Amino acid sequence: MKATPHLLCVIALSAALAGCAATHTTSFLHPEFDFSQVERVAVVPFEDLSNEPGTGSYVSRVFLTELLATGAFDVVEPGEVTRIIGEQSRGRSAELTYDQIKKVGTDLNVQAVVFGTVGESADLPSGGVGGHTVSLDVRMVEVATGSTIWSAVVNTGGPGFFARLFGAGDQTRGTAVRTAVRKAISTLVK
Asked: Which of 39, 56, 68, 98 has a CA-to-CA distance to 161 between 20 and 30 Å?
């Protein structure tokens, strides 16, 4: 059998996809909520439960940039969000009460607040091939009702099958974070 250019492309694409790190996503989008009502959002600095110092703030910045890149929402400047959240939460931004969320919404003139948690961020060597894994949990809460209107959990990273087999395709921390963030945002903004 002679390999045609089309067949070679299919084989190369299959190998590339199989070598990619696995990504698992679970998401919720409120079926009755009109997202056109949300024009401006605040992204609260992500909580960091990983063992890598600084990962929460790094993922927060990547999330903010990727969200802005969609053009779907106006996003409040991070310094202003940190100041207002600090006044309301005394450093525990992932556990704001409904009244605190409502006050943050009023103070920042937003319709929704985004909270996130980095659960894991680590290098996972496998057979001489490295790969970074990231676990991200993010949600959007409507200020007026305190209801979660969107939520996504994304786990990504580690070397894929062909990367382990052929010893190629390391995934850096930055790539793993961008992949997780983009996957999460894609469940919100189509």
From this structure: 56
Both structure tokens of 5: 């250019």
What are the pLDDT tens digits along the chain (190 aa)? 555 555 444 444 444 444 455 788 999 999 999 999 999 999 999 998 887 788 889 999 999 999 999 999 999 999 999 999 888 766 555 578 899 999 999 999 999 999 999 886 655 555 555 576 888 999 999 999 999 999 999 988 655 544 444 444 556 777 888 989 999 999 999 8
Asked if residues 140 and 113 have their Cβ atoms less than 8 Å apart, the reply is yes
Per the structure, the count of domains in the chain is: 1
Residue-level length of the chain: 190
Domain of 45, in residue numbers? 23-186
Q: Is residue 32 included in any domain, yes or no? A: yes
